[in-house]
């Protein structure tokens, strides 16, 4: 079989100066034929699930990160168009002061503020303080704000949830002093 | 005694040599040629920003006027590189500001650029002319405003697919009030609305403007008014084409386009309603480049448009074009050199991808000048690949993405080995290759043996064993960039072929079976390589045999990186005491 012949070639190659490894170590050529990769248990949001060999007529396949290889920019454009045309989902951009990347989230996935907060905290690895109706957020340097339909910047949590989802154009997690200017419950 | 070429003469000869590959060869001839070359090089290209220090580059090329830098590995485009990995532009800008103040052009790809960085550029380079940012992130429209307002001689400002914190459309009003020297402006990736009046005035006072790419927020009305003021455009990216169809709007649009007699390239076309496409007919005969990849238009409308584009050289389109549409392209667009077919539903779940291997076969047969292909479809056959290779031996770039991982030839159920063998053997000038579908080690043996000029190779879900990697690293003479994901091999082939890695720009492997021990060993043995282990959630302890999530290896003369985030392991950060017990299994 071809592989055996190649194995012999490979063994000879091992005599070259580039043989790296401790003397006397066992040499094998193939390292597992399984195409499935056992993934460590992981609680990240973007989970990888390789489906291995094709399973026909199966339920919706788990998504594989970065596959098919379509740039995120293009994916986001298509996704937004699809959602807008199907009336599904409400994707808004989320930025955090100091973080060099933006994310997009679908507000319709959440039912209330605490869920949204938790998701943002996970996404950007920060924690938001406690929300007080009059004083806004306390206990953290980070404050979640959003831009509404009229172009005004508001504190997340000031308006009832449904109103927020329908009027929020984008989110910005502000840091520190900039926040003081924002009124509460305006 | 050997005749020496006087340096003045050499200098004069070099003034005709632009290609950096040639200049690199010239600089290797002898010391004096090295000196003359380096003092005359104006355009500097650094393919990996961590391969060399900014100071070294500035020192070597005192006459540098143009700098091109690339940062993150290519797979960052597909979310395989965690945020915060690196690729910061700042240290480069700082160094150039200090040592190369005559710099006029900066082109960055996949780098993190901050507003401070942009402000530094604006403040430091008196005659700054060109800024092109591709797939960059980390800055806001404030940074863009700084460039617009301060760089009085700005000719080119292009933001290509960047992630920008969009603080509003004001940045556009920061361009100088007097006439500008703008030749190209691309803000297609920005979200917010710009004031049409600002845009109109800018265009009116930019007599040299040839290329303009608008963002989706610009409406059809806006587009018409811009075109009226800039009929000299050769490249246009429209805004959103979605608008209620009104006869007057259509007539105005038609007329505006028909006045653009020099238009060669058209893109944008987001949300284009098929009813508006006829407004473009007048420019079709002159088009050499058409990007319809955001146009969700069906095949019949696409064909109506494309059959008028007899001079088309570059076509980007979605799979909505169907095989039939590609058959039409094959018969009408005889000048086609580059074809990209993107998936309209980029999911594994996608049920109805309307292009098959047949579409690509049509184009390969009909378009004799075809040399670059990017094609997404669900399945393929060896027969199709063999035909494509036979018909188009002049292919330089062949990227096939069979969306179904491990999909065999659906007619014979065999791996696609024979097909890719034909491509590797037949297309002798192939420079870039991406493979997919079910592939055994054999396929890579063929590729290793025959693909002599391939410089960049991308592989996913393929191979059976370490042999695959071994074939590639011991073959592929011109290999510079290799990126691999989800393939079942690791240590042995990697360590066997370590020396090869110094002849390449970089190697990326993710979700393979490379052990931590092998990474350490490679790091220790190869000091001129940076070996980075990137585990998004690094475990507290790492046994030698534990597989790493991602490994990124690149040659460098800059030494270890000092700006790695927590989740990147390098030997430098973690010096080991001796080589621990290592079993290469």
UniProtKB/TrEMBL annotation, chain A:
Keywords (A to Z) from UniProt: Auxin signaling pathway, Nucleus, Repressor, Transcription, Transcription regulation
Domain of life: Eukaryota
Compartment(s): Nucleus
Subunit structure, interactors included: Homodimers and heterodimers.
Residue ranges constituting the PB1 domain according to the UniProt record: 89-176
Primary site of residence: nucleus
The keyword Repressor is assigned to this record: yes
The UniProt record lists the keyword Transcription: yes
Function of the molecule: Aux/IAA proteins are short-lived transcriptional factors that function as repressors of early auxin response genes at low auxin concentrations.
PANTHER family linked: AUXIN-RESPONSIVE PROTEIN IAA17 (PTHR31734), AUXIN-RESPONSIVE PROTEIN IAA4 (PTHR31734:SF227)
Gene3D superfamilies according to UniProt: Phosphatidylinositol 3-kinase Catalytic Subunit, Chain A, domain 1 (3.10.20.90)
Annotated segments matching region Disordered: 22-66
Database matches in InterPro entries: AUX/IAA_dom, AUX_IAA, PB1-like
PROSITE patterns (alphabetical): PB1
Family: Belongs to the Aux/IAA family.
Protein name per UniProt: Auxin-responsive protein
Automatic annotation (TrEMBL), chain B:
Short name of any one Pfam family annotated for the protein: Transp_inhibit
InterPro entries: COI1_F-box, F-box_dom, Leu-rich_rpt, Leu-rich_rpt_Cys-con_subtyp, LRR_dom_sf, Transp_inhibit
Domain of life: Eukaryota
PROSITE patterns named in the record: FBOX
Keywords of the record: Auxin signaling pathway
Domain F-box intervals: 1-48
Gene3D superfamilies documented for this protein: 1.20.1280.50, Ribonuclease Inhibitor (3.80.10.10)
Protein name: GRR1-like protein 1
Species, as recorded: Camelina sativa
Lineage per the UniProt record: Eukaryota, Viridiplantae, Streptophyta, Embryophyta, Tracheophyta
Gene from which the chain derives: LOC104737477
